[in-house]
Amino acid sequence: MHAYIKEELLNQIKANKYKPGDKIPTELELCKDFNVSRTTVRTALNQLTLEGYLVRHQGRGTFVADQKLKQTLTQTVKRYSDQVAIQGKEAKIFVLSITVIPANEYLSQQLEVAHNDPIQCIERIRKANDEPTQYEIAYIPWNVAPGITETQAASSLYASLKNDFQVHVAKTIEHIEITLADEICSKHLDCELHAPCFYIETLAENENQEKVEYSRAYFRGDKTNFVLSEIILVLRTIRLDSKSYDASHRS
């Protein structure tokens, strides 16, 4: 019954019977409407809250959450700021750090560079209306775009590659997983520890099929959904266990 109630409420939200900011009926009212126990209703509401469709305020009630940020999965289609602006939100990109590191064995394989070649490591947080939606670590070989600045990283990185370094990203391959927020992600995304997140690895190539960027990105599952465009998408499934989370899949 809780699955049925969840589906009914979700259909009403998506049909705009309940709009963002609207207060939904109380638990007691829903119990009467569906002729079920309070526990059943609470389970349905908890699931919708976890998935980002509802937000619960102590002493005030349960409200429909703001619509999730829609993003085109591949970054070669539209800039993040443009996608966010269309939805009436303000996009911001915060650069946490830009460092130069030697390529380890894994980065050497991904970016097809020699071991210990200099790689620029760029950590960023993307926000929509001051709410963090994405934490990203991007790796760009030094010889592809030497000396990327904070100003360049704080805008569209792919646009900066094209305009400032004449590097055109012609193709991206994305691997997407469902994962749980660890301590670092929880801090940067301002979400609870072990909250569900999308985890996406991206490998970008230029028109000569040369590797120009590799990135790892974490998206809040309750704030983001994706629009699939003409891309190569590889889906991988991992087991989510909130009691014993093995982060080894990220290495």
TrEMBL record:
InterPro entries: Bact_HTH_transcr_reg, Chorismate_lyase_/UTRA_dom_sf, Tscrpt_reg_HTH_GntR, UTRA, WH-like_DNA-bd_sf, WH_DNA-bd_sf. SUPFAM superfamilies: Chorismate lyase-like, Winged helix' DNA-binding domain. Residues 1-67 form the HTH gntR-type domain. Keywords: DNA-binding, Transcription, Transcription regulation. Gene3D superfamilies: Chorismate lyase-like (3.40.1410.10), Winged helix-like DNA-binding domain superfamily/Winged helix DNA-binding domain (1.10.10.10). GO terms for molecular function: DNA binding; DNA-binding transcription factor activity. The keyword Membrane does not apply. GO terms for biological process: negative regulation of DNA-templated transcription. This is GntR family transcriptional regulator. It comes from Virgibacillus chiguensis. The lineage of its organism: Bacteria, Bacillati, Bacillota, Bacilli, Bacillales.
